[in-house]
Amino acid sequence: MREFKVVVLGSGGVGKSALTVQFVSNKFMEKYDPTIEDFYRKEIE
């Protein structure tokens, strides 16, 4: 299986974490603590 790394960049408070969490877990989080740095992993077939 090929592996790709994706980096999400942008200004603070624009929804980078919300978008990433929604993609990885298929859930939308309305409230969460501000993120400094996080790593997520998802397998796609």
Automatic annotation (TrEMBL):
Entries under InterPro entries matching the protein: P-loop_NTPase, Small_GTPase, Small_GTPase_Ras-type
Methyltransferase recorded as keyword: no
Top-rank lineage group of the source organism: Eukaryota
N-terminal signal peptide: none
GTP-binding as UniProt keyword: yes
Cellular component terms (Gene Ontology): membrane
Keywords: GTP-binding, Nucleotide-binding
GO biological processes: signal transduction
Protein name as catalogued: Small monomeric GTPase
Organism: Acrobeloides nanus
Lineage: Eukaryota, Metazoa, Ecdysozoa, Nematoda, Chromadorea
